């Protein structure tokens, strides 16, 4: 949790501040990165506090030397869902909306009938997973370089791939006490087994931490 806070604080106060709403939103919703990339403002219901997930945006090879945007539908019914918004997720969307208006960054591109994407790059095109991965690499490299330069006791960040953000978000929800069935619905898992594997990992980690607290009290 400390590393997550440090990660977000660094982004907010650095040259990467443009991406702050994007990463807050991913970490608060546990959406697949492709779902975040494909999110349009028509999918967002700020009044009732949820986003409607019906598709993903991918950038795939369509030939030997060509790639193109593609809208993909979920492989199972569980992938189509309404995901509730935390206050932080809602604030991130409001900030993103404000940024698009102030910077005139509304996406004009239309992909398979979808347009007005929520998260766009500086060229007014929707983000893709590959680009988010490259941005994460740069952020982690600069973060670790800065803490090494200035010294201190802050731990460096590990390599962060886009899917890890979804995994981290799910773990935080489990730690907060969200029950497995609700977590399955939020994640869009087709099988409860997938959710329970992560949920049990968090539970095991929590038990280990509690035992360590007992050990520390006995030592003191």
UniProtKB/TrEMBL annotation:
Record organism: Blautia wexlerae
Pfam families: Phage_integrase
Tyr recombinase domain mapped to chain residues: 1-212
GO function terms (MF aspect): DNA binding
Family stated for the protein in its record: Belongs to the 'phage' integrase family.
Protein name per Swiss-Prot or TrEMBL: Tyrosine-type recombinase/integrase
GO terms under biological process: DNA integration; DNA recombination
InterPro entries documented for this protein: DNA_brk_join_enz (IPR011010), Integrase-like_cat_sf (IPR013762), Integrase_catalytic (IPR002104), Tyrosine_recombinase_XerCD (IPR050090)
Gene3D superfamilies for this protein: Intergrase catalytic core (1.10.443.10)
Transmembrane domains' residue ranges: none
Keyword field: DNA recombination, DNA-binding
